[in-house]
Amino acid sequence: MRLDRLLARLDVSSRSSCRELLRAGRVKVNGEAKSDPAFAVPEGAEVTLDGKRLDTRLTRHLIMNKPAGVLTAKEDRFQQTVMDLLPKVYATLECMPVGRLDRDTTGLLLLTTDGDLAHRLISPARHVDKVYEARVDGTLTDGDVAAFAAGIPLKDFTALPARLEILAPDRGRVTVQEGKYHQVKRMFGAVGKPVLALRRVSFGPLKLDSALSEGEFRELDQEEAAALYAAAGMNHE
C-alpha cells in the first residue's frame, strides 16, 4: 500500500498533509526515513512517526457492550451511533458493525473490517447462534417454548425454529440463527409477551465480556478472532 494512503487509513494524517510529514523526515519505514508519498510499504514493515511505532494492522475485530439509546449504524445526522463511541481510526479503517442491534437493545456487538466475515456470520446458512436475554410483559410458558421451537409465523416471514429457555416467569433466553429487523421482539410479541428489555449475551463462539461496561469495547485476541473465522467457515491467517 502507498505510504500516504496507509497514513491516512491509520488516521495519522490526510493524504494531502502527509507530504509535510515526509519532507520533515518524521516518518520512517524499517528505520529509514521516506519522503515519497507513493512509496510501497512492504507487508509487515515497521512504520514509525517521530520514533513511535504505528499499529499498521488494517484488519481489526472489536467486541462492544452496546448501550441503549445508540444506533447500530455507520453515521446519523441526528443521533449517536456505535461508531461515535470508537476512536476515529476505526472509521478510517472501515470497521463496521456485524448485523444490527435495535436502538434500545444492549449487549454484545461485533465490529470488523472484514466484510466477507461479517456477511457469513449473519447469514442464516452458516447457523451461527445469537443468544439474547429478554424481560417481557407477561409470564412465559412451556407453550411459548414450543412455539419458538416450531418457528413463529410473522407478517412478512416465518422465523426459523429457535430455542427459548425460561429463566424466570418474565425472563427468557432465546437462541436464534437469523437477525432480521426486530426479529426477537416480534417473536415474543407474536406469543403475546411484549419485550421490555433485550440484551445480546453471545454471538457464535463469543460471549459478552463482563469486564466491559456499557459503551466500552476492546479488540479481539487471536484466539477469539480464529474462533469467529472458524464459525464462519473461513481460514484465519
Task: Please characterize this protein's 3D structure.
With 237 residues, the chain is an alpha+beta fold. The protein has 7 helices and 13 strands. The protein has 3 domains: 3-53, Roll (Structural Genomics Hypothetical 15.5 Kd Protein In mrcA-pckA Intergenic Region, Chain A); 61-124 and 206-231, Alpha-Beta Plaits (2-Layer Sandwich); 129-203, Alpha-Beta Plaits (2-Layer Sandwich). The chain has helices at residues 3-9, 15-23, 88-92, 115-122, 142-150, 183-190, 222-231; strands at residues 27-29, 32-33, 47-49, 52-53, 61-66, 96-97, 106-112, 130-136, 163-168, 171-176, 195-203, 206-207, 217-219. The strands form 2 sheets. Strands 5, 6, 7, 8, 9, 10, 11, 12 and 13 form a 9-stranded mixed sheet that branches. A 4-stranded antiparallel sheet has the order 2-1-3-4, with no helix packed on it. The longest helix has 10 residues, at 222-231. The chain starts with a helix and ends in a 6-residue tail after the last helix. The mean pLDDT is 94.
